[in-house]
Amino acid sequence: MLPTAQIDRIAARFEDIEAQLAAGHGDMVKLSKERAQLRPVAEALTHYRAAEAERASLELMANDNSDADMAAMAREELEALKHRLPEIERELKLLLIPRDAADEGSAILEVRAGTGGAEAALFAGDLLAMYRRYASLQGWRVTVMSISDSDLGGVKEGILNVEGKGVFAKLKFESGVHRVQRVPQTETQGRIHTSAATVAVLPEAEDVEIEVKESDLRIDVYRASGAGGQHVNKTESAVRVTHIPTGVVAASQEEKSQHKNKAIAMKMLKARLYDAERHRVDSARAADRKDQVGSGDRSERIRTYNFPQGRLTDHRINLTLYKLDKIVAGDELGDVIDALIAEDQAKKLAALDGNPT
Prior knowledge:
alpha+beta; Alpha-Beta Plaits; Double Stranded RNA Binding Domain; eight-stranded mixed beta sheet; three-stranded antiparallel beta sheet; 8 helices
């Protein structure tokens, strides 16, 4: 059952925007942006209404006894249309689901080694490579914002800026604790160890979405250092930015220019502040947030990578796939992400059906 009241409101608003744009009234930029957001719904609604009108017409023809051949043809077309209508309706319902405002934008992806020492750092490095490969296959632009290598290979912490349309919508379900079970390179007895890494995916904050006052910032500069602590830069080019009211910190030392490092650190800081505010608002709106797919709770174990069995299990949706090598390579990570998105959509559709208003 479609939420007719919601559909009517959207259709009326779309027509109003079209009229204002045609007459040159109002804020053209704001109206154009809203029109672009509503247009897919309006087009799907037009498609749905045309299909409903066609069904009504075919039903009349199918019951017309004056022309047996025409009635038979109408019944055949009506049967085919009845098979298509549920999918047309489902597509419209999906468009009616409230969208996360950040879904269409870029994201900042942070991977950190967790419990497990050197093996955790190696795993974090594998995850970072996996996401870079997946992003490349999606045609997204990836920039390394910060990376801290471990002494034995791998990564203590890696932060990527992933730019493209719909990046956050695809990657947001990756936030959480990723657990790995495998025999470490340093293990001589062949014993399987369990390690972990954390992933955080933050929507990239636009300046219009979050304002940071210069007076609220403390900016420290220092010399960049590499693995083991040795200095790799004789000038104080590294920058650490602290947001005094919240205590949120971001730092960058990847660039040789202090100016560039400050810009990178500010981008990370804004993303973290924006993400914190989004979580605060979401928690206030939904007490059962943790029960939802993609809650973004980074304290929960979301996935296990079992190398001896070649098995990946996503615990949130009870998904198990036996092609771990291809997933970790990034080539088939999309199968996991698509399953999470499908589950999320299914839950939201069920909620929509249960609340038709």
